[in-house]
Amino acid sequence: MEGNQIRERQLEGIAISKARGVYKGRSIRTKENPIEFLTKTKNKKAIELLEKGYKNVEIAKITGFHQNTVIKNRKAVFNT
């Protein structure tokens, strides 16, 4: 029951914030152009390593990227 009250108060707060224009929620995806994304120097390094056959985990450790960013690089290069 208390959990329901907390959720109700949370939803009220969100509704008030949305009415004031403060709360917009999480933005979906990046608005960055794929070409701009791939031409960054760190991404170029990741692409070179991908072409050499390194695994996603290895590239993430070398470049300091998250594995999802490495996967994004792989999809952008090899699926186009």
From TrEMBL:
Location of the Resolvase/invertase-type recombinase catalytic domain: 1-21
Protein name per Swiss-Prot or TrEMBL: Resolvase/invertase-type recombinase catalytic domain-containing protein
Organism, as annotated: Psychroflexus lacisalsi
Lineage, broadest ranks: Bacteria, Pseudomonadati, Bacteroidota, Flavobacteriia, Flavobacteriales
